[in-house]
Amino acid sequence: MSDSRVQDVPTPAFELSYNGKSITADIAGHVLSIAYTDHLSGESDELDVELEDVDGRWLDSWYPDKGATLALKLGYRGTALTAAGSFDIDEVEYRSPPSTVRIRALATGVQHPLRTKNGRAYEQITLQALAQRIAKRHRMQLQGKIEAVNIDRLTQYHETDLQFLQRVADQHGYVCKVMDNNRKLVFWKRSDLMQSASVRRYTPAQLMGWQAQDQLSKVPAQVDVSYHDPAKRVLRTASARADAKAPGGKASSADTVKLTRKAAGKRQAEQMAAAELERRQLERTRMSVTVDGSPQLAAGSNIDLDGFGKLSGRYQIQRASHRISRQDGYVCELELKRVAASAAQDKRKTP
Hints:
Layout: E1 12-18, E2 21-22, H1 24-27, E3 31-39, E4 46-52, E5 69-76, E6 82-95, E7 100-106, E8 117-126, H2 127-137, E9 141-143, E10 150-160, H3 161-171, E11 174-179, E12 184-189, H4 190-195, E13 198-202, E14 209-214, E15 222-229, E16 234-241, E17 256-260, H5 266-281, E18 285-292, E19 302-305, E20 313-325, E21 329-340
Parallel strand pairs: 9-12, 13-19, 15-17
Antiparallel strand pairs: 1-2, 1-5, 3-4, 3-20, 4-7, 5-6, 6-7, 8-10, 11-12, 14-18, 15-16, 18-21, 19-20, 20-21
Helix pairs in contact: 2-3
């Protein structure tokens, strides 16, 4: 006799397309696992599909083409699936016995010019104009609000356009990434992401596993940025000091990080010092957690962790690895950095 009080366990679901055509029904019985990794910045998002090949069809008629496009949606049966994006096939790996094929794909394909290293110089430009120029060069749509940041001179040292832009964005307190199969270049201000509401709240009992690292001595209390004042022909210094109420603000380290940067003036140097301090303060408390899968858990989103003592707080997702497999169902592994010392201080309700 069935018990109406027992809830059905949600069934993970996915939809996979190959060059725009759905192949879900054809491959569903062969799939061992599908893993999608979402990075906030610095690395290309990745898709990893592992399948059985008992009859050798993946070596013959189903052999995937390098450079072909895979598109993934994931979630749970009975709900609208969430698009994870499009990926260009980069590598195909076979193993036997047992016969399996593993297909790896990247959101920024290896054949895309964004991955070509260049050397260029830019003068008298804003961060917005720089981002717009690179987006236009690669026929992408620039999205996100970028405040006025005037830059006298920049040099791209044998870097890809994306690496160069991410480096400059990071120096000014922004993160950026390529999305939607190289069609969009998206910018976020790091502080805006840190202040956004959490999408989920977890207690220790809700985690499958977790690991934390709290650095007590490597986080600086102050950052000094030295810059050349061309009008006075002298070296000047702008500083940013940690707020004691901010996460990591009471770090035991009294160190001051000293940097030399090209800046258009005191205001820009102060922005760069604040951005560097913000980035380093985020390194103080990090956690890795494993939870039930949810498409809500995207890189850049925040979650609240309660019941972890002094490690409790609001954390930003730096990397989200979504994995659907026969053995474990739908699981997420998250790499986190704390952005607020105590979730209890925030009265907003989250799921």
